[in-house]
Specification:
single chain; alpha/beta; eight-stranded mixed β-sheet; four-stranded parallel β-sheet
C-alpha cells in the first residue's frame, strides 16, 4: 500500500517508538494478528436499530460492508449510532429530540473515529437525521469517508392507490372531516408502510441521500434503491471497497465537499422537489466543512434550476419510480448538459462528477413522467423559496410547489404550541383565508425545532391546503406541502417579530415577492416589543437543555459548534 505512514493514523499511534503501546493487547483480544497493525483501520458507523423501519434493514448492509473492508485489505471497526424516528415521534414531545439527534449522531461518529484513530469511515444510516448527522461528522473529521444510505421503503397500497407515511397523516384530517370511512382510514394506516426502508416520497431522507450523490459522497444510483432489494446490498459492499481505495489515496471529505459541490447538491434538491429540511442541513454541513454558504445561496440556485421530477409530496411518484426512470444520475445528466452542475467536482471514487455521468443518457427514458426534460419542467424555478420581511428579517423557508397561488393575506390564528393548533384544526375551527402562526417552536424555544407534519397534514386532509397559510419558527416534515413557511428567524424565544403577533393581526405570505410580513405599524410593534418578556426555558437539564443553550439560529443551520 502506498505511503502507509501517511494514512494509517492507528499504526502510528500503536507502533511508534522502541517500546510499543500495551494497547495492542486489546486488539489481540479481538483476534488481530501482527500484520493487522500495518492495515488501515476502517470504522463502520452502523445505524441499525429496530426503532423504525427506516433503520431496521441496515444490519445486512453493515455486514457486507464489514466483509468488503476485510477483503480490500483493511480492518473494520464497528460502532453504533442512535436514531430517532421522525414519523413515530411526530406530534409528541419526542419530536423535540429529532433535530438534536442530528448533532448526537455527528458527535458519536466524531468521538469514535477520532478517539480510536480510525483511518476512514463508512457511515450507514436510514432515518432523516442520519444523513446530515453523518455528513456533518465526515466534514468535521476530514478523514476519508463515504455515506451508505439504507434505502427507501417500497410504496404501500390500499384499494389501488400508492401510499406513503404521509398518506396516514393526511387520512387523520380526512377522517375527522367526515370525508373518509373508518374502513379506509384503518386500511391506509395498516398498509402505508409495507417493508423496511425510509419514507418513500421525496421527503427528508430521500432528499438528503439523493443530494449526497450530487455532493460526491455517495455512489451513483445508491439513493433510490429500495432497502429490501439485493442491489442495495451490492451497493453497500461496493461503497466499502471504494472507501478503502480513498484511504489509500488520502482522498478526504473536504477535497469533495466544496462550495461548487454543495451547489450541485442544492441544484438536485431543487430539481427533485426536495424537503425544506435540506436548507437547514446544508447550512450545517457547509459550516462543518468550513465552506461559505448562506440562505441567499439557496435562493440564487432556486432561480436558475427548474423542478423536473414529479415526486410526492406535491407530485405523483415515489423514490422507487424515480429509480426505475434512471435515478439521480439521470437527473444530474440533464442538469449537467444544461450547464446547471459543476462537472469538474471530485467524487469519492476519485473521478469527477462529469466522468461519473459520462455513460448516462442525455434524455430521460420514454414512456414515463417521473423525470421530465427541462423543456417540460413542472416549474421553471425551484420550489424552496427564501422569504424575508419584518416577520423574518433573517429569513424563512417556504415550499411553493403544488400551489395554484403561493400568496395569501389573512388574519393570524396564534398558537404557542403544536397541540393547541391541532385541537382547533380537528374541531373545524380554522377557516379558509386564515394564517396559522405556530411559535416558540424554534431551535431554542422548542427546543429542538419540531416538525409540524401533523397540523399541515390535517389541513390538507380537511381540504384547506390551498386556502390556509401556516408560518412557524419550527420545521416541516419533508412530507409537508401547502402554503407553509418555516424556519422563521429570529425565532420567538429570541424575541423575533413572530413573538409579537396577536390574534387577528393581518399577515402576508407572498412567494412571488419573497415576502413574509406582519401588517402592523412599526410604532405598535415597538410597544409590543417593549412589553415582551422572554419565557423561561422549558428544559433546564439534559440533552434538550444543552441543545437550547448551544444552538445557533435556524438561519445559520441550528448548529451547536
Amino acid at each position: 500500500m502506498a505511503d502507509q505512514a501517511r494514512y494509517n493514523r492507528r499504526s502510528r499511534h500503536v507502533t511508534e517508538g522502541v517500546a510499543r503501546s500495551p494497547n495492542r493487547s486489546m486488539y489481540y483480544a479481538m483476534g488481530y494478528r501482527e500484520e493487522d497493525f500495518e492495515k488501515p483501520m476502517i470504522g463502520v458507523a452502523n445505524g441499525h436499530s429496530t426503532i423504525t423501519p427506516c433503520n431496521s434493514g441496515l444490519q445486512k448492509l453493515a455486514d457486507v460492508a464489514i466483509a468488503a473492508v476485510r477483503e480490500a485489505g483493511a480492518n473494520p471497526q464497528v460502532f453504533g449510532t442512535p436514531t430517532i424516528s421522525d414519523g413515530m415521534s411526530m406530534g409528541t414531545e419526542g419530536m423535540k429530540f429529532s433535530l438534536i439527534s442530528r448533532e448526537v449522531i455527528a458527535d458519536c461518529i466524531e468521538t469514535c473515529v477520532n478517539g480510536q484513530w480510525m483511518d476512514g469511515v463508512v457511515v450507514i444510516g436510514g432515518c432523516d437525521k442520519n444523513m446530515p448527522g453523518g455528513m456533518i461528522a465526515l466534514a468535521r473529521l476530514n478523514v476519508p469517508g463515504i455515506y451508505v444510505y439504507g434505502g427507501t421503503i417500497k410504496p404501500g397500497h390500499w384499494k389501488g392507490k400508492d401510499l406513503t407515511i404521509v398518506s396516514a397523516f393526511e387520512a387523520v384530517g380526512e377522517f375527522t372531516a367526515g370525508r373518509m370511512t373508518r374502513e379506509d382510514f384503518e386500511g391506509i394506516e395498516r398498509n402505508a408502510c409495507p417493508s423496511s426502508g425510509s419514507c418513500g416520497g421525496m421527503y427528508t431522507a430521500n432528499t438528503m441521500s439523493s443530494s449526497f450523490e450530487a455532493l460526491g459522497m455517495s455512489l451513483l444510483y445508491s439513493s433510490t434503491m429500495a432497502n429490501p432489494d439485493d442491489e442495495k446490498v451490492g451497493s453497500a459492499a461496493q461503497s466499502a471497497r471504494v472507501l478503502v481505495e480513498a484511504v489509500k489515496r488520502d482522498l478526504k471529505p473536504r477535497d469533495i465537499i466544496t462550495r461548487e459541490s454543495i451547489e450541485n447538491a442544492v441544484a438536485v434538491i431543487m430539481a427533485t422537489g426536495g424537503s425544506t429540511n435540506a436548507v437547514l442541513h446544508y447550512l450545517a454541513i457547509a459550516h462543518a466543512a468550513e465552506v461559505e454558504w448562506s440562505l441567499d445561496d439557496f435562493e440564487r440556485v432556486r432561480r436558475k434550476v427548474p423542478v423536473i421530477c414529479n415526486l410526492k409530496p406535491s407530485g405523483e411518484y415515489v423514490a422507487t419510480d424515480l429509480h426505475r426512470a434512471g435515478g439521480i444520475p439521470q437527473v444530474m445528466k440533464l442538469l449537467l448538459d444544461a450547464g446547471l452542475l459543476h462537472g469538474g467536482c471530485m467524487t469519492i471514487t476519485g473521478r469527477t462528477l462529469a466522468e461519473e455521468l459520462a455513460d448516462v443518457p442525455s434524455e430521460p427514458p420514454a414512456g414515463q413522467d417521473v423525470i421530465r426534460p427541462l423543456s417540460r419542467a413542472l416549474y421553471d424555478e425551484g420550489h424552496l423559496a427564501i422569504l424575508k420581511g419584518n416577520l423574518a428579517p433573517d429569513g424563512a423557508v417556504a415550499k411553493i410547489t403544488g400551489l395554484k397561488n403561493p400568496a395569501i393575506t389573512g388574519p393570524a390564528r396564534v398558537f404557542d404550541d403544536e397541540q393547541s393548533a391541532m385541537d382547533v384544526i380537528l374541531a373545524n375551527g380554522i377557516q379558509p383565508g386564515d394564517v396559522l402562526v405556530l411559535r416558540y417552536l424554534g431551535p431554542k424555544g422548542g427546543p429542538g425545532m419540531p416538525e409540524m407534519l401533523a397540523p399541515t397534514s390535517a389541513l390538507i386532509g380537511k381540504g384547506l391546503g390551498e386556502s390556509v397559510g401556516l408560518i412557524t419558527d419550527g420545521r416541516f416534515s419533508g412530507g409537508t406541502w401547502g402554503m407553509v413557511v418555516g424556519h422563521v428567524s429570529p425565532e420567538a424565544f429570541d424575541g423575533g417579530t413572530i413573538a409579537l403577533v396577536r390574534e387577528g393581526d393581518s399577515v402576508t405570505i407572498d412567494a412571488h415577492q419573497l415576502l413574509i410580513q406582519l401588517n402592523v405599524p412599526e410604532d405598535e410593534l415597538a410597544r409590543r416589543r417593549a412589553a415582551w418578556t422572554k419565557p423561561a426555558a422549558k428544559y433546564t437539564r439534559g440533552v434538550l437543555a444543552k441543545f437550547a443553550k448551544l444552538t445557533s439560529s435556524a438561519s445559520k443551520g441550528a448548529v451547536t459548534d
